[in-house]
DNA sequence: CGCTGTTTTGAAGCCGATCAAAGTGTGTGG
DNA sequence: CCACACACTTTGATCGGCTTCAAAACAGCG
């Protein structure tokens, strides 16, 4: 809605972002994002249509159904995609971490609500211009295809979780997924005792897992009681034994893990 | 597994299929499948590496984890993609109707179990060769991107169903989804009283919806008792009022429907 | 006709939802 | 620097929808 847009503009540092301007070469997601495979000249095309935007925690990026004039890469922070039934029941359908892509090329309106859960910096591309470049630059469209296929695999893993796992298994799976993604992002290993940061509130976790926030709380604490995890403050989680966590997740140990 | 491969070969009419050979121009899915946007010369490239395979109801097309040397378009029939936990709990993660694409380019091994639920005819492409063509023919990769994005949207709609809908809503949603897809495939409308064919057993529906087959049976009959649907034999369903069915599905009436 | 696979129906139990209230922590303003 | 407010989390008690286990009904096919 326009009210949202106004809020966004008001709070929005806009094109003059605090993030290292313009320089794609210095970008932290240069070799992971949609532009990963681009050559220098191709990158220049994107550079010409890009601008940065940032959002505060809790701020809505777009409402499902609203017009969206850009697509974007998440540079830093975490955002969620959610879908809602009339009566308010909400299901998260995407969790966007740095390098993930937001928006659908060729589509004028957003399909889902996108909300920043931490401070988020987006590298935005004007939609029409991006569509044009996409048609011309195979490196770009192939990378986007690759990322979309990965997302589809992740969505299917997620469907298994939603459809067939117990509450306890859902929690364990979620923590394992976050741990893996954080490890991949930071190039760390999960062998030794590792600490991670849950980027979501209990309520957002519930929306991710198709549970209520009370059940999430109970099961998180149950895993803690059973020594599978340790809690550090509200968001921190220590994993003394990652393999144990995976056992609790219901997946087969090594798992047909995709990424 | 190789045992499976043997079974498949044994039962498989193979390259000499009963389907109208070779002629892409006569293909019933010519303008819907991955090849939809291809020009005549591009089509010729695909024609050079393609072959048909058919499968009987219940027959496995590939096992998750197994080697897969081809990708394919479903020409006729219905196939499912499923994922399984060690203890046997299974969740369907894909329902492939005519024109849908099977397999992931660039990936050597299948991620999911693919099973024919009716007699299925596949138009197969040797994987390596297909990958090469994909790199050379933008019409092909763009169409594949488009189809993958559609599948991702469908997966996310499915996640909402799995995570947040009641058993009754799940059944109503499922019937509505099938009705829409059949209508789109046959170019029919859903306004008037229409009859559809459920391509799945109660058990397969349960795997689709994250329910037990008993619950599926009970809720289907509940919808029948309430006059939302009528049953014709085991697989046939008559929809006296599609709007009523959609109400029961929990989605908002017109729905942010994607395709 | 009897076999097999599928669907329906029934009864009981459990897991997660719901409703309610107390606890924790963080930031703000007095 | 403390106290309050607010947002989030934890804990408790009860309820209900779906699963589970069991068996009967049904349909298709040799």
Automatic annotation (TrEMBL), chains A, B:
<dbReference type="Pfam" id="PF13545">
    <property type="entry name" value="HTH_Crp_2"/>
</dbReference>
<dbReference type="InterPro" id="IPR000595">
    <property type="entry name" value="cNMP-bd_dom"/>
</dbReference>
<feature type="domain" description="HTH crp-type">
    <location>
        <begin position="165"/>
        <end position="243"/>
    </location>
</feature>
<dbReference type="InterPro" id="IPR036390">
    <property type="entry name" value="WH_DNA-bd_sf"/>
</dbReference>
<dbReference type="InterPro" id="IPR018490">
    <property type="entry name" value="cNMP-bd_dom_sf"/>
</dbReference>
<dbReference type="InterPro" id="IPR014710">
    <property type="entry name" value="RmlC-like_jellyroll"/>
</dbReference>
<protein>
    <submittedName>
        <fullName>Crp/Fnr family transcriptional regulator</fullName>
    </submittedName>
</protein>
<dbReference type="Pfam" id="PF00027">
    <property type="entry name" value="cNMP_binding"/>
</dbReference>
<dbReference type="InterPro" id="IPR018335">
    <property type="entry name" value="Tscrpt_reg_HTH_Crp-type_CS"/>
</dbReference>
<keyword id="KW-0804">Transcription</keyword>
<feature type="region of interest" description="Disordered">
    <location>
        <begin position="1"/>
        <end position="22"/>
    </location>
</feature>
<keyword id="KW-0238">DNA-binding</keyword>
<dbReference type="InterPro" id="IPR036388">
    <property type="entry name" value="WH-like_DNA-bd_sf"/>
</dbReference>
<dbReference type="InterPro" id="IPR012318">
    <property type="entry name" value="HTH_CRP"/>
</dbReference>
<feature type="domain" description="Cyclic nucleotide-binding">
    <location>
        <begin position="34"/>
        <end position="151"/>
    </location>
</feature>
<dbReference type="InterPro" id="IPR050397">
    <property type="entry name" value="Env_Response_Regulators"/>
</dbReference>
<keyword id="KW-0805">Transcription regulation</keyword>
């Amino acid at each position: 809605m326009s009210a949202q847009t106004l809020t966004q503009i008001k709070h929005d540092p806009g094109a003059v972002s605090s993030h290292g301007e313009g320089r794609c070469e210095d970008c932290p997601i240069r070799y992971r994002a949609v532009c990963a495979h681009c050559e220098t000249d191709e990158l220049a095309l994107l550079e010409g249509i890009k601008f940065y935007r940032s959002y505060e925690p809790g701020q809505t990026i777009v409402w499902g159904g609203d017009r969206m004039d850009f697509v974007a890469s998440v540079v830093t922070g975490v955002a969620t995609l959610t879908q809602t039934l009339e009566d308010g029941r909400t299901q998260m359908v995407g969790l966007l971490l740095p390098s993930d892509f937001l928006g659908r090329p060729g589509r004028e309106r957003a399909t889902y609500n996108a909300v920043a859960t931490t401070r988020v910096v987006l590298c935005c591309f004007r939609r029409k211009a991006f569509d044009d470049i996409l048609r011309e630059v195979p490196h770009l469209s192939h990378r986007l295809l690759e990322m979309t296929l990965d997302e589809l695999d992740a969505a299917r893993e997620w469907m298994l979780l939603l459809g067939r796992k117990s509450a306890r298994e859902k929690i364990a799976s979620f923590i394992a997924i976050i741990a893996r993604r954080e490890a991949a992002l930071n190039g760390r290993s999960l062998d030794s005792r590792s600490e991670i940061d849950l980027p979501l509130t209990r309520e957002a976790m519930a929306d991710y897992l198709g549970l209520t926030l009370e059940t999430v709380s109970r099961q998180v604490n149950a895993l803690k009681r059973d020594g599978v995890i340790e809690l550090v403050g509200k968001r921190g989680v220590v994993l003394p034994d990652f393999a144990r966590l995976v056992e609790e997740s219901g997946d087969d140990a090594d798992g047909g893990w995709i990424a």
